[in-house]
Amino acid sequence: MKKLSLSFNNAIILTFVLLRACRTGQQKPGVRQSTGVYQYDNEKKTAVARKSGPYYSDRQAVTGKNGMVASAHPEASQVGVAILKAGGNAVDAAVAVQFALAVVYPGAGNIGGGGFMVFRDKTGQAFTLDYREKAPEKADKDMYLDSAQNVIPRLSITGHLASGVPGSVAGMAEAHRRFGKLTWAQVLQPAIDLAEKGVALTEREALGLNRTKKSFLQVNPEKRYFMKADTTDWKTGELLIQKDLGQTLRRIQQQGRAGFYEGETARLLVAEMQRGGGIITENDLKNYQAVWRDPLVGTFRNYKIITMPPTSSGGVALLQLLRLVEPYPLRRWGWNSDSTVQVMIEAERRVYADRAKFLGDPDFVKVPVNQLIDKDYLKTRWSDFTFAKATDSRAIKGGTLPGYESLETTHFSVVDQEGNAVAITTTLNGGYGSRVVVGGAGFLMNNEMDDFSVKPGVPNMFGLIGNQANAIAPGKRMLSSMTPTIVEQAGKLYMVVGTPGGSTIITSVYQTILNVLEHGMTMQQSVNALKFHHQWLPDNTLFENGAFSDETIQKLQSRGYKLEQLTNSLGRMDCILLRPDGTLEGASDPRADNTSVGF
Ligand code: DON
């Protein structure tokens, strides 16, 4: 009997494993079977002991018939869905999610930062809104340099001087004014409730706040924001109540953008700047405007890609990357085979070199967008490529090596019942931004100034290099890599895609799109799939453990590619795909608290 039950158990396990293998196999036509061992350690919240992928975890998609919200935090996604259920459209939900994230996800959700929105309405018309931060009027191109013209370490990263003039509230007010259906008060209310009644901390957020405590105290010595009354460490599930933030949100609810850019909030923000040696003035706040820009639209095979134009570099780079690999049979070569990876890396190398040279705020510099995405131009970029050997980045342009900083931006995607779709990526830049909390107003300020090229050729916190096109000037927007994107198939909504990750945003979005379009993955598999990144300089390829098989590693190395296995992960995607039967597939990243909620 004992023997029988044992073998019965084994049979169940074996059947499960086989079924899973078959199911996985069926779901990813075109994906080469992994030769290694995949394992996800639930306790460590990381993938371990795995030789090759292709997935970070086997997280399953969330489906819905009527609407879907995919965001970095379960509470924020719930807020979005509640707004949709109350009759709001995708823009109403997106506005509510942006404000909710500012409460429940202080590391990146924000009102003290900025972002980009790509909106495709149910008729297929597309709009993009640039609510990126701006350099204050007193900013100067040499403001982070000492008298010997050397960069003063961390000045553009931590503290009051690191902040650009925030754009998020202006962006949301403008998006809602133009497209919202519910009242402004309605879309603000959930965030106010979360701030005043408190939000239970996830394990990840508790950890983040505990890790940042010291630097919060350094920057804000007299404040105890984001800290427990007794200053002991947060534990998972404890309630974070933010009364001052609640009041700020109430002012925004009552007065619209003026509740942030004028009156009490503006007064508190300017006082905070003066206290800490910052330069943002009342004038800066009053003058800040979000701008509608023409969406950047291009094709990849039979798909239409609707994405963010400059001030983001993301859309231009994404279209360049997709078009550069378009002539190659990626599908036949297989997911992350040596040839597939090789052409993707070589495309990335060239595109990031272009980014450094040409991209900046289009209100200040002429960005040759159409030339950069032109197919004939892109063809010329392959002229020095050979499969035999890695191109040397120095041969394309020289540079120096960077360090990497903790990554916190956030992306969310919303699709409503009528098929309106919103992709928003929003950020404070680094995790918890400049660490400056506006006294009395309870919100964190961005450290977006670091996205400028503070000195030509000197890498920023993401190792990105820039030049004049992205030099600091008063009122100018700093270049971004954020790439909120919507993909259309045969004139219909197909995918809503985006992620945080600094310079790696572009390559993560690129891979996530190719995984679906070229390698036949589902949206969730594509998000789960392990990723890699190359950005021209430094000249190495970062990859998540398991992203490459031993064979791919060996072949790439033999051709001179420098590979660096990451100890952390790439991307925190929040994507939605419209399946042929009309079902929405919400795919949130298993690498963090990201959650899709559908109905
Ligand atoms: O706009 C940008 O490109 C950066 N400020 C984004 C920063 C980011 O994604 C940080 N983390 N994940």
UniProtKB/TrEMBL annotation:
<dbReference type="Pfam" id="PF01019">
    <property type="entry name" value="G_glu_transpept"/>
</dbReference>
<comment type="subunit">
    <text>This enzyme consists of two polypeptide chains, which are synthesized in precursor form from a single polypeptide.</text>
</comment>
<dbReference type="InterPro" id="IPR000101">
    <property type="entry name" value="GGT_peptidase"/>
</dbReference>
<keyword id="KW-0012">Acyltransferase</keyword>
<dbReference type="GO" id="GO:0006750">
    <property type="term" value="P:glutathione biosynthetic process"/>
</dbReference>
<dbReference type="InterPro" id="IPR055262">
    <property type="entry name" value="GGT_CS"/>
</dbReference>
<protein>
    <recommendedName>
        <fullName>Glutathione hydrolase proenzyme</fullName>
        <ecNumber>2.3.2.2</ecNumber>
        <ecNumber>3.4.19.13</ecNumber>
    </recommendedName>
</protein>
<dbReference type="GO" id="GO:0006751">
    <property type="term" value="P:glutathione catabolic process"/>
</dbReference>
<dbReference type="InterPro" id="IPR043138">
    <property type="entry name" value="GGT_lsub"/>
</dbReference>
<dbReference type="GO" id="GO:0036374">
    <property type="term" value="F:glutathione hydrolase activity"/>
</dbReference>
<feature type="binding site">
    <location>
        <position position="502"/>
    </location>
    <ligand>
        <name>L-glutamate</name>
    </ligand>
</feature>
<dbReference type="InterPro" id="IPR051792">
    <property type="entry name" value="GGT_bact"/>
</dbReference>
<comment type="similarity">
    <text>Belongs to the gamma-glutamyltransferase family.</text>
</comment>
<dbReference type="GO" id="GO:0103068">
    <property type="term" value="F:leukotriene C4 gamma-glutamyl transferase activity"/>
</dbReference>
<feature type="binding site">
    <location>
        <position position="451"/>
    </location>
    <ligand>
        <name>L-glutamate</name>
    </ligand>
</feature>
<feature type="active site" description="Nucleophile">
    <location>
        <position position="409"/>
    </location>
</feature>
<keyword id="KW-0808">Transferase</keyword>
<dbReference type="InterPro" id="IPR029055">
    <property type="entry name" value="Ntn_hydrolases_N"/>
</dbReference>
<keyword id="KW-0865">Zymogen</keyword>
<keyword id="KW-0317">Glutathione biosynthesis</keyword>
<dbReference type="InterPro" id="IPR043137">
    <property type="entry name" value="GGT_ssub_C"/>
</dbReference>
<comment type="pathway">
    <text>Sulfur metabolism; glutathione metabolism.</text>
</comment>
<feature type="binding site">
    <location>
        <begin position="427"/>
        <end position="429"/>
    </location>
    <ligand>
        <name>L-glutamate</name>
    </ligand>
</feature>
<feature type="binding site">
    <location>
        <position position="132"/>
    </location>
    <ligand>
        <name>L-glutamate</name>
    </ligand>
</feature>
<feature type="binding site">
    <location>
        <begin position="480"/>
        <end position="481"/>
    </location>
    <ligand>
        <name>L-glutamate</name>
    </ligand>
</feature>
<keyword id="KW-0378">Hydrolase</keyword>
